[in-house]
Amino acid sequence: MKNLTHTLISIGAFAAAALVAQAQPAPKILVVDMAKIFDNHYETKAEKAKLDDASQKAQAEIDTMNKEGNALVAEYKELDEQSKSPMATSDAKASAQKKAQEKGQQIQAKMQDINTFANNAKQSIQQRIQTFRSMMMEEISKVVVEVAKRHDATLVLDKSGPSLLGVPPVIYADSGYDITPEVIAEIDAHRPAGAASSAPSSSSSAPASSSSTPQITVPGVTAPAR
Predict the structure, then answer these.
(1) What angle do CA 44, 211, 57 make, to 5 degrees?
(2) In 48-173, which ranges are E strands?
(3) 25-188 homologous superfamily
């Protein structure tokens, strides 16, 4: 009798658990491509244009500094030749040699200036990219949440990037569960007049940063360590 009672209690508990499970809706999992949304966001395209412009201006400044450095190089070579000329007097050679050494120091200083400017410009652009990406991901996530709630989603997975194992976090997903197009449409609905469309494009969103190094080379003059 005691065993029968335990059996009936177990059956009742199992039945109750089954009823609770049936009462809870099945989880609804959706996927989204955050990278695709970011790359094609109208604000990303506008920011890319600004960063490209900043990069081009930095490159133009570096080119100008290189020309100034190369002019110093030409002066250095001329003075170096004068210091070795058999037609020059000893005093003239000594004077030319001294001026050549001074010019070499100016060249080294110019090379250091170029390196410093190029590195600062690169770091500045990279910082702008990082700050902008962080801000945009926060804004895009809000739209994803809104769209997901309209679908009564339980969970949304990002399928854009690889996991720590180097494989995508989502191996397969039916396109019917992908809300990326809907999120892009939602973002485009609030696009200001005149702004670029968020429609997918093949161009990369990462602007080319300025990374040029000095082109000044002088025999006997060592470039400063980078």
Answers:
(1) 65
(2) 155-158
(3) Skp domain (3.30.910.20)
